[in-house]
Amino acid sequence: MRNRRVEFKKGLLCRVAGSLVVLMFIVGIIVYPSIIPVFGSAAESSDAAVSNRASFSTDVIYQIVTDRFLDGDSTNNPEGDIFDRSNLRKYHGGDWAGIIQKLNDGYFTGLGITALWISSPVENITTIDPSNSSASYHGYWARDFFRTNEFFGTMNEFQNMVNTAHEKNIKVVIDFAPNHTSTAEFGTTVFPEDGRLYRDGQLISGFKTDTRDIFNHESWTDFSTYENGIYHSMYGLADLNHINGTVDSYMKEAVEQWLNMGVDGIRADAVKHMPEGWQKNWLSGIYEENPVFVFGEWFTGGTGSDAQMEKFANESGMSLLDFRLANAIRGALGNDSITMVDLHSVIEATGADFEEVNDQVTFIDNHDMSRFMTLSGNNQRDVENAYVLLLTSRGVPAVYYGTEQYATGSSDPENRGDMPSFSTTSNACKVIGSLAPLRKTNPALAYGTTNKRWINNDVYIYEREFAGNVVLTAVNRNQSAGYNIAGLLTNLPAGEYEDVLGGILGGRNISVSAAGAVTVFELGDGESAVWQYTNHSEAAPDIGNVDPMIGKAGNTITITGRGFGAAAGQVYFGTKAAVVQSWSNSKITVTIPNATGGVKDISITTAAGTKSDTYEGFEVLSGPQAAVRFKVNNAATVYGTNVYLVGSVYELGNWDTSLAIGPFFNSTSTIGMYPTWFYDISVPAGTTVEYKFVKIDGSGNVVWESGNNHTVVTLAEGTAAVTVDWQE
Ligand code: NOJ
Ligand code: NOJ
Ligand code: CA
Predict the structure, then answer these.
(1) Which atom of ligand 1 sits closest to the CA of residue 368?
(2) CATH 3.20.20.80 is right for the domain spanning 14-182+245-440
(3) Peptide bond into 663 cis (omega under 30)
(4) CA dihedral sign of residues 294, 298, 303, 305
(5) How many helices (H) and strands (E) does the chain have?
(6) Mean of per-residue pLDDT scores for the chain
(7) Pocket test for ligand 2, best of 655, 658, 705 (most atoms within 8 A of CB)
(8) Which helix (H) or strand (E) holds 383?
(9) pLDDT for 574 beyond 60
(10) What is 447-533's CATH number, 2.60.40.1180, 2.60.40.1220, 1.10.472.90, 3.40.50.620?
(11) What does the alpha-carbon distance between residue 177 and residue 368 come to, in Å, rounded to a whole number?
(12) 655 CB less than 6 Å from ligand 2?
């Protein structure tokens, strides 16, 4: 199991820690007169600072469809048939000037929002897509990833927006869609753009005129298999061939251009539809220069486990948008299709399936599903309760613009209407405005475990806990029945607690006994409340998170948590000490030490000599990465047996067949069809790699190729493809 924090402190132990903490707090005033970090200012070095681009654990993201938010500059609005405010498929004029205006007037700050996720900023097609009569107002039909969408603004305005956001302690995440350009295939329809890709104005290729293998040419995906979704086109979108060296370097350099302007994170579009191996190599390049937070969109409609999705979340090096939790909250609070007990089961199951569940990005609605208000039959309290749940649950929450204003809309494009209002008086705004700041101050929300405390089909009471910090949340979704809450236990220290929401959703004060028993209280119809305890002095270092999720020696890694102490101590990757770049009580940055690739346990020893818990299995890559397409011909198998690859480097399992890469693909006509098998894999660049193919059956029996190992010398930069025959 990789990257999972080891939890020591449960139940009783925690209560002991709680009393200790009170003592420590008194002592703390004497022992540590002030928490002055070794480097930088206190704000800069906190885990919650905007300078922390690697971890979004304490942030609340606000998702903006740029065109639909605010038109701050009408001079950049499109002319002609792509602009029409009465048509939801056309441009409406929203832009970065509008976002700057709202940054300056404090709209986001008032809500406690600390990160914006905006539409893809890159140049898109400027014509109507004839297959669906739509303009590219949403930003998903790229043309030139090195230029701006002129209707959103210029490069200077983009830079101003990022700078303005940072001045307000708000991070900026851009949507980025490297899977495709624009639509190019739909029966006999002629597309004026032909999916053309440009590099800063220079044409690279059109789709029908593609002589350089820039695109995959496999017609539309039927979504039947993972392989089919990757190499075929999604709804006719010209599907980029990432193993092409030109596309590979284009996407690496394009994203770097935006990150070098100070962008703090990437929302990667359609990650299920690109080779994982290419994406891992792309991320490795990103993290080398700009260790930022990356989360991908792996769309799924259900709440159940999807092994391929979880494998991607656990191995690719990026987080995912957590559709499983979103669908569960929508079911439990939106249309009551599941119960609170079912919702809790999803929290438990995802907690087991995602190795870094606190890093997944959570939400209740977005631009690809009905707005929560519409789902709930226009029930405002449902929206408010859903936000209580979202903002106190594990994961990094994202609020979809307008839902805090009770905007409605069933499917795309109705769910992407103009921002209805900027008033902040609604209860939904008040819920966000009181809970978002709590994510900055109480680390139980960012890093904590989740513990069910009281449940029935309508009521869910759960506790988050980290390093002596506790947040207890109670939600009653039933708007016509209240419940008597008896027998509730908590790890909140003894005392009287006020509802963090100030009673706006009916919550009241609770009192907790020394044994952790909450006095009986009534959770009325549709009521919600949140109670919290913030620990100001930790007895020992507690690691909350390590970000980014992967990296090679020399990269900067950010460790967040509590109790690291003011003075620099030591950080170990396995037994190797890392060079410390900065150190504060809640955030440490270090350089990944030179070590062979593999999973390493990270631990901290404070200056005072106290050891932390172990953060298990951080993935150190063997070196800079390159994507290689491995192909083997004539590998005949019986039904149920698949081909995998294993080799001499960590990325290829170090000859351990239980870590072999695959199963390989074999059903793509332009790349490989059975008995030819292929797979795109991220391997160390500029390295001699030995490898062999293996056949593994459904019970795990392994048959090796005979003969000598195959050898490939990977390029220092760029992609490669190697093809060999199976050695019988
Ligand atoms: C998923 C996006 O969220 C959706 O809105 C878009 O149309 C597709 N990917 C294609 O980019
Ligand atoms: C075992 C395989 O059988 C062999 O082919 C390969 O060369 C070695 N592993 C590498 O150590
Ligand atoms: Ca405009």
Answers:
(1) 5
(2) yes
(3) yes
(4) negative
(5) 14, 39
(6) 94
(7) 655
(8) helix 380-392
(9) yes
(10) 2.60.40.1180
(11) 15
(12) yes
| Residue-wise pLDDT tens digits, 219-269 | 999 999 999 999 999 999 999 999 999 999 999 999 999 999 999 999 999
Closest residue by CA, ligand 2 atom 9:
655
Provide the annotated active-site residues. 269, 297
CA angle 621/627/631 to nearest 5° reads 120
For residues 341-352, give the mean pLDDT: 98
Ligand 1 centroid, distance to 401 Cα (angstroms): 17
Of 530, 687, 684, nearest in space to 598 by CA: 684
Share of the chain above pLDDT 70, in %: 94
Average pLDDT over residues 473-483: 98
Mean pLDDT in residue range 574-587:
96
Whose C-alpha lies nearest to ligand 1, atom 6? 140
Q: How remote is the CA of residue 367 from the centroid of ligand 1, in Å? A: 9
Q: Could you give phi then psi for residue 464, rounded to 5 degrees? A: -105, 145
Q: Rounded to the nearest whole angstrom, what is the distance from the C-alpha of residue 299 to the centroid of ligand 1?
A: 9
Question: Rounded distance, CA 416 to CA 57, Å?
Answer: 27
Q: What is the predicted pLDDT for the residue at 45?
A: 83
Contact in structure between 599 and 654 (CB atoms under 8 Å): no
What is the sign of the dihedral through the CA atoms of 8, 13, 19 and 20? negative
Q: Compute φ and ψ for 351, nearest 5 degrees.
A: -60, -30
Beta strand 615-621 pairing with 550-552: parallel
**Hunting for tokens 């499983």 — which residue is that?**
324
Answer yes or no: is the C-beta of 709 below 6 A from any ligand 2 atom: yes
Give me the helix-helix angle, 276-289 and 245-259, nearest 10°. 40
Tell whether ligand 1 has an atom less than 6 A from the beta carbon of residue 363: no
In this structure, which residue's CA is closest to atom 10 in ligand 2?
655
Q: Is 654 in the pocket of ligand 2 (CB under 6 A)?
A: no
Q: What are the backbone dihedrals phi and psi of residue 102, each rounded to the nearest 5 degrees, phi first? A: -75, -30
- What lies within 8 Å, CB to CB, of 31 at 6+ separation is none
- Over its C-alpha atoms, the chain yields an Rg (Å, rounded) of 26
The CATH number corresponding to 542-621 among 2.60.40.10, 1.20.1250.20, 3.30.1330.30, 1.50.10.10 equals 2.60.40.10
Cα 157 to middle of ligand 3, angstroms: 12
Contact 697, 640 (CB under 8 A): yes
Ligand nearest to the CA of 708: 2
For the domain covering 625-725, report its CATH number. Answer: 2.60.40.10
Phi, psi (degrees; rounded to nearest 5) at 231: -100, -10
Mean pLDDT of 36-44: 52
What are the residue ranges of CATH 3.20.20.80 in the chain?
A: 14-182+245-440
State if residue 140 touches ligand 1 by the CB under 6 angstroms criterion: yes
Ligand lying closest to the C-alpha of residue 181: 1
Closest-CA residue to 292 (of 541, 442, 117): 117
Place of tokens 């037994």: 575
- Total residue length of the chain: 728
Whether the CB of 269 sits within 6 Å of ligand 1: yes
The closest residue, in CA terms, to atom 7 on ligand 2 is 709
The backbone torsions φ and ψ at residue 556, rounded to the nearest 5 degrees and listed phi first, read -90, 135
Quick one: which atom of ligand 1 is closest to the CA of 180? 11
Residue 40 has pLDDT above 80, yes or no: no
Closest by CA to 640, choosing from 663, 617, 615, 661, is: 663
Helix (H) or strand (E) holding 237: strand 237-239
**147-198 pLDDT, tens digit each:** 999 999 999 999 999 999 999 999 999 999 999 999 999 999 999 999 999 9
- Dist. CA 56–CA 76, nearest whole Å: 32
Ligand 1 nearest atom to the CA of residue 138, by list position = 5
Q: How would you classify the pairing of strands 556-562 and 542-547?
A: antiparallel
Please tell me if the CB atom of residue 270 comes closer than 6 angstroms to any atom of ligand 1.
yes
